[in-house]
Amino acid sequence: MRSWFSWSRWLGIVAKEFIQLSRDRLTFGMIIGIPVIQLTLFGYAINSDPKHLPTALVIAEHSEFSRSILASLANSDYFTLVGEAPDERAAARMLATGAVQFVVTIPPDFSRRLIRGERPALLVEADATDPSATGNAIAALNQLAQSALAHDLTGPLAPLAAQPGAFEVRIHPLYNPEAVTQYNIVPGLMGVILTMTMVMMTGLAITRERERGTMENLLATPATALEVMTGKIVPYVLIGLTQVTIILILARLLFGVPMVGSLALLYGAVLLFIAANLTLGLTFSSLARNQLQAMQMTFFFFLPSMLLSGFMFPFRGMPGWAQAIGEVLPLTHFLRIVRGILLKGNGMAEVMHEAWPLLLFMLVVMLLGLRTFRSTLD
Amino acid sequence: MTTTVGADANVVIDVRGLNKFFGRNHVVNDLSLTVRRGEIFGFLGPNGSGKTTSIRMLCGLLTPDSGEGSCLGFNILREAAEIKRSVGYMTQRFSFWEDLTIRENLNFIARMYGMKNARASVDETLDNLGLTSRAKQLAGALSGGWKQRLALAACLLHDPQLLLLDEPTAGVDPKARRDFWEELHALAARGVTVLVSTHYMDEAERCHKLGYILNGRLLAQGTAGDVIASQALTTWSVTGTQLPALAQRLRSLAAVEQVAAFGTALHVTGSDRARLRTELAPLMAEPGLTWTEVEPGLEDVFIHLMRDAGEAPLGGPRP
Fold first, then answer.
1. A103: which strand partners?
2. Is A348 helix (H, G, I), strand (E, B) or coil?
3. Neighbour-count burial of B62, counting CB atoms closer than 10 A to its CB (0-12 exposed, 13-18 middle, 19+ buried)
4. Which residues contact B192 (CB under 8 A, 6 or more apart)?
5. Is A24 helix (H, G, I), strand (E, B) or coil?
6. Cβ contacts (< 8 Å) between A223 and chain B: which residues?
7. Which residues in chain A are contacts of B97 at CB distance < 8 A?
């Protein structure tokens, strides 16, 4: 019995493991940090029933009825009226850039036709790229048609309040009319996969050289730090582009994801996104002492990227602080770019709107990275 | 002391007052060193004494915090790039790519030095190593001795003027070590300068000149004879019976600094010749013991230097 299991030997192994764990501060941080971050994110930030969705108005006719409808929209919790668009084109642009989730149009002649009992249509255009973000709000709209004018339809107009309602709510779910979840998820996956592989692979590539001692050899040759770093990164740029191509082909063949916009523009955005992630990977590699730490840093970054970028859960469902963190993450902006190009057919102008935060992120991380680089090379 | 290299073209390494700190650790303390063309200079000292850091400063991998000097006529502070081009540096640990083949490793190094006749040089190197038939094997699959030979060959690929070797023979068998040193001497004969750090006394004796570094300070330098003579030690060798008991008694004597067993003999060393003789006199009168005065060895000198400097550190910083 004692020969195959000795308690004192076993305790010795347990004690050694604890000592080693306590030496690695980063691992220790992960042990505490991961559950805390997961809990706060899942517990407070994530909400699959987003409310207060920004809604623009196109009002062709101001009347008592339209005022009542807008008031009940505002009261419904699902809609936050951000203002009136000057015309339909401006409203369409707001939808394309993602500035608003809905555009509510009250057509001319609305009240006259309503009084005549012609059931005029209240037009609601929704940015339905992410079906889960708009689903509940759309359901609430149909309810609203019943109750919005309850106070106005009295006296001679009372019969109009009966079923099927005094006006019709006509919903146009734009960009993803059939509410196919894949159309939203598959382009998003492109960003998720790139984040994971680009950050991790560069992080590992450089810490591996350092861990194995080959970095010293490399730096003892006439190769300069710039040559080493850029030379080591380029293969990963190509890997990233390959991954994107594979995802695009599969997205088309397996899921029939629409590709409305310019693929050249998409690849341009992909390059920028890859660059941002590689910069981060490089910075991690200059901070990490070994490959394990580089891995852990990648995960630490990957987790909030997945949860707070709008990939898994609607971005607008999150509280302000979580949205603020999300706005910092490159994935958030890349998701908007990819979905914008593929589903909405966005062009350069709309893409630029999301591209500059990516650039800014890259520059800041690069500056941080350069500062730590100096000390590790010397 | 030379102030410019032009004064003596045969001086390959000429540095003065090099200092390096890692945090609060004074790793290299006022290192001054002169090594001439074709010399094999042995760099000795306990672990963590600053040997690796010194070598890294000489080849431009680290910038000294203070001090000045030149390596191959290039300023070590400003011309690191030029130094790197004509120096071969072999790291303490095998630092080639284990997941590349032997040929790929050599090709890569050849490209890093921008060699024009890379292919021919690599072929020749493989041939000299006797590795032509194994060129497609992964470097990681080589045994320790072969890895060391490959590393040296890779360092020599670009025909460096100066070789900096950091404990190149650690963990290598005696035959491979001897071959290695034969090659170093052949290189030195062709005018290549070699600075090599080692822990082995037999290797130290093969060097033309030695430097002994401890706690970042160069305590002694010169030929092996110079270094030994500089400390003026007296060593007695005693053979006989019951040596372990004798060793105990010897250690209690004030003039005895070291008692070390060498096979069937004890070596008794002290720096005060006359006092040692007086204290040993009663023991010399005892029967069954044979006493002879011998030349102190390098090891005796180094251990004496370590004792002088107080207890040596077990391990210094390894950046």
1. A56, A125
2. helix
3. buried
4. B38, B160, B161, B162, B163
5. coil
6. 112
7. 214
Using beta carbons and an 8 Å cutoff, which residues of A are at the interface with B?
212-214, 216-224, 378
* pLDDT per position as a tens digit, B149-174: 899 999 999 999 999 999 998 888 88
The CB-side HSE value for A260 (13 A sphere, CA atoms) comes to: 17
Q: Do B113 and A220 touch (CB under 8 A)?
A: no
Q: Which residues of B touch A378 (CB under 8 A)?
A: 62-63
Q: Do A222 and B109 touch (CB under 8 A)?
A: no
CA dist B114 and B125 (Å) reads: 16
Q: Please report the DSSP string for B210-264 in residue order.
A: EEEEETTEEEEEE-HHHHHHHHT-EEEEEEES-HHHHHHHHHTSTT--EEEEETT
Q: Scan residues 267-306 of B and list those with Cβ closer than 8 Å to A.
A: none
List the B193-198 sheet strands across, edge first.
B87-90, B162-166, B193-198, B40-44, B209-214, B217-222
Strands of the B265-270 sheet, one edge to the other = B258-262, B265-270, B234-240, B289-294
Sheet of A121-127, strands arranged across: A79-84, A53-59, A102-106, A121-127, A168-174
Q: Which residue has the tokens 């668009």?
A: A85
In a mutational test of the B interface, the residue from A209, A215, A216, A217 whose CB has the highest number of chain B CBs within 10 Å is A217
Mutation site, B95, B108, B152, B195, interface A, largest A CB count within 10 A: B95
Residue whose structure tokens are 């404990």: B167
Reported as a single tens digit per residue, the pLDDT across B193-214 is 999 999 888 899 999 999 999 8
Cβ-defined contact of A219 to B61 (cutoff 8 Å): yes
Rounded alpha-carbon distances, angstroms, from residue B141 to A166, A200, B138, B154? 83, 27, 6, 17
**Rg of chain B, C-alpha, whole Å:** 22
Nearest CA in chain B to A227: B112
Contacts of B109 in chain A (CB under 8 A): 221
pTM: 0.79
Q: What ipTM was assigned to the predicted interfaces of this complex?
A: 0.81
At residue A368, the pLDDT reads 86
Query: Residue type for B286, please?
Result: E
Q: Are A124 and A168 in contact (CB under 8 A)?
A: no
Residues of chain A contacting residue B71, judged by C-beta atoms under 8 Å apart: none
Q: Give the pLDDT of residue B3.
A: 45
Q: What's the first-to-final CA gap in chain A, in angstroms?
A: 55
